[in-house]
Design goal:
The protein has a single domain, classed as Ammonium transporter AmtB like domains (Ammonium transporter fold). Helices cover about 70% and strands about 5% of the residues. It contains 9 helices and 2 strands. Strands 1-2 form a two-stranded parallel ribbon. Helix 2 packs parallel to helix 4, helix 3 runs parallel beside helix 6 and helix 7 packs antiparallel against helix 8. It starts with a helix and ends with a helix. One of its GO terms (cellular component) is plasma membrane.
Length: about 230
């Protein structure tokens, strides 16, 4: 018979993580100077970064969300888990990246602003790409644990690729797309089950392909605008 924790483990783990995130943000985070009432009146950062953030945010929540609906029996779960992982990773990514910053090492605080939200969206993209290789294989609790582990690993790899090896990673093709894909393949291999091969639900139908195409159109337009703004 399942224990009370096993029955409610998803709610418990998610609630505890959110409480921890709120404490960490409250103790160590500060608003960007442009967000403060008496801060800088320079509107250029907001005018340039916020449109990019909007486009990327739509790409994360709608583009990736609907793209994952191609499986005929996993549409609602795909969109729901996509939103869950996006929200969780954006929070966790800002905390991890902030605590690894020079600003935090010198001041004991890290900044939260539009730029940090934008980079957190890209951290979420890594997790969602990995999710694409794990559709239908994990429970929501396991997805959360996967995101909790993968987020700091991806940020660590990104730092060394860009700052140690000085790689000019155009479009984040290596630190986002390739890393997320290979991490997902590794997880998929670890959770592989021969009984799931050629399963009757492992396929698409006409309507699921239509929704997936809608997601891809959002992804394409979001990437195009982000690169040229």
């Amino acid at each position: 018979m399942a224990s009370a924790f096993q029955k409610h483990q998803f709610t418990i783990i998610l609630a505890i993580s959110q409480v921890i995130f709120m404490i960490l943000f409250g103790l160590f985070a500060k608003y960007d100077v442009n967000a403060m009432p008496n801060g800088s009146e320079d509107s250029v950062p907001m005018a340039t970064l916020y449109p990019m953030f909007q486009d990327t945010h739509v790409m994360i929540f709608i583009g990736f969300g609907f793209l994952m609906t191609f499986l005929k029996r996993y549409g609602f779960s795909a969109i729901s888990v996509n939103m869950l992982l996006s929200c969780f990773t954006i929070e966790w990514g800002m905390i991890v990246r902030g605590m690894l910053s020079h600003e935090f090492a010198e001041e004991g605080k890290f900044t939260i602003g539009v730029e940090q939200l934008l980079t957190a969206d890209f951290a979420a993209a890594v997790i969602l790409i990995t999710m694409g290789a794990m559709l239908g294989k994990l429970s929501p609790t396991q997805y959360i644990i996967m995101a909790f582990i993968e987020t700091p690993v991806s940020i660590f790899v990104e730092h060394h690729v860009i700052h140690t090896f000085h790689v000019n990673d155009i479009g984040d093709s290596m630190v986002v797309h390739a890393f997320g894909a290979y991490f997902g393949l590794a997880c998929s291999k670890a959770f592989a089950d021969k009984r799931q091969r050629e399963h009757e639900n492992e396929g698409s139908i006409y309507h699921s392909d239509i929704y997936a195409m809608i997601g891809e159109l959002y992804n394409f337009s979001g990437k195009t605008v982000t690169f040229f703004v």
